[in-house]
Q: What sequence folds into this?
């Protein structure tokens, strides 16, 4: 339903979106995650034909954003970061106005306005001025204008930003009720948002795509097993990498050992546990009992936040921030 290939968008010297490729299938809800300035809004503006791409292609419902912008717009409902509301209009009047702009004919407009006010639970404010609505209600009116022409695809830029927890839950429920009929991409900074609403996550950072995966895959990987970064040092000279790897692999509960780095006398590995196993203590014991020094041992990737930070903050920075356990154990220290 949405196809993005090698998409790049530059603003003067800033590369806001850098060669990203992804697809979204019909009926999917996909979360678009990334820190401030990652390029989420820019990507959404290209998809909604507000900005032309610098390079690459994007298409919605089979229509290219550059070649068939009118067709693309017919198929898309867009909720920008700041909803395009007119404070001096009443809700009903505004929805009729946007409906007409989107080509809904006079005979259908009443039906569509009734439908979206019901779906977005704004029936009780239909005759209120938009300027007098609370933020949550405004956001719902923003959503109502996005779906008034019953588009196949919804592109929602931070639909829950600035809302209170109750409003967030209501919007989340609304999105769930829209899923299936509609293909939805929503951007957010809130990880739990993605866990609750989305089947897949696209993570971007500094314009680059860093991960696309199902929420289940990400969370299973995190919740079920433990990933540990470990750094081993020989007391005299360099430990033999193969030997260290084999010893680590033999520790009970370890499923996988990958060597990450070898620098001077230090070797770093990433070790993953089997489901539900805790391996840090045994790893530390094995290293020390083998006559090596353990210069670092820390958990990696224990939550969606950890993955997000790791993917978006760069490995080095994430290592510093996530360093819950960075220990140096000397042989004597461990034997006491
Ligand atoms: N109109 C513009 N002119 C110049 N640079 C821009 C413009 N709009 C965005 N940028 C830059 O492009 C990059 C991506 O911005 P974008 O708004 O797409 O990020 P975002 O992921 O939506 O961030 P946020 O989470 O803060 O909304 C940033 O470095 C931003 O400063
Ligand atoms: Mg943005």
A:
């Amino acid at each position: 339903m949405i196809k993005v290939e090698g998409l790049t968008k530059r603003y003067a010297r800033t590369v806001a979106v850098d060669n990203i490729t992804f697809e979204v299938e019909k009926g999917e809800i996909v979360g678009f995650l990334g820190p401030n300035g990652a390029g989420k809004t820019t990507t959404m503006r290209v998809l909604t034909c507000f900005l032309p791409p610098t390079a690459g292609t994007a298409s919605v419902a089979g229509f290219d954003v550059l070649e068939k912008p009118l067709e693309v717009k017919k198929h898309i409902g867009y909720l920008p970061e700041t909803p395009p509301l007119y404070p001096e209009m009443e809700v009903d009047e505004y929805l009729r106005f946007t409906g007409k702009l989107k080509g809904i004919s006079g005979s259908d407009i009443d039906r569509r306005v009734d439908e979206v006010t019901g779906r977005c639970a704004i029936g009780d404010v239909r005759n209120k001025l938009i300027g007098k609505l609370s933020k949550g209600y405004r956001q719902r009116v923003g959503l109502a204008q996005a779906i008034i022409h019953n588009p196949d695809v919804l592109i929602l830029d931070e639909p829950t930003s600035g809302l209170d927890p109750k409003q967030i839950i209501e919007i989340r429920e609304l999105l769930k009720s829209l899923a299936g009929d509609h293909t939805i991409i929503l951007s957010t900074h809130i990880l739990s948002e993605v866990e609750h609403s989305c089947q897949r996550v696209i993570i971007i950072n500094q314009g680059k795509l860093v991960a696309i995966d199902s929420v289940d895959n990400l969370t299973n990987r995190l919740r079920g097993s433990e990933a540990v970064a470990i750094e081993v040092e020989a007391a005299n000279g360099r430990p033999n990498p193969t030997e260290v790897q084999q010893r680590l692999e033999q520790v009970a509960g370890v499923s996988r050992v990958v060597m990450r780095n070898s620098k001077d006398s230090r070797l770093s590995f990433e070790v993953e546990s089997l489901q539900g196993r805790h391996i840090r203590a045994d790893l530390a014991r094995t290293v020390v009992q083998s006559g090596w020094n353990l210069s670092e041992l820390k958990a990696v990737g224990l939550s969606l936040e950890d993955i997000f930070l790791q993917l978006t903050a760069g490995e080095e920075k994430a290592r510093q921030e996530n360093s819950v356990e960075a220990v140096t154990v000397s042989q004597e220290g461990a034997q006491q």
Notes: Residues 116 and 144 are 5 Å apart (CA to CA). The longest strand covers residues 14-24. The chain has 13 helices and 14 strands.
